[in-house]
Amino acid sequence: MEILLDLENICSADEFYELLGENMALPAYFGRNLDALHDVLGDITKETRIRIIHTDGVSVMMPKFFRGLRRLAADIHEENEHVCIVLEDDLS
Question: Are the CB atoms for 80 and 46 separated by under 8 Å?
């Protein structure tokens, strides 16, 4: 399965989690933070590729959140062989 998240018009973490919820089945108890996302992604057992595109704006407007998202992508890559997160900027 491939999930595409286009961050071109995302200006806040809340908007990111809204977009995520529109494109991915999240449990009702999902906590709308990166730790909760880590837990959800860690439980995936089907091959899943998450492409996150147009990350440039988010990396500038929300640098702390973006650093956390990059760290999450790296951690999940090591912890769950079924999940691959690809972050692409506007030039990728």
Answer: no
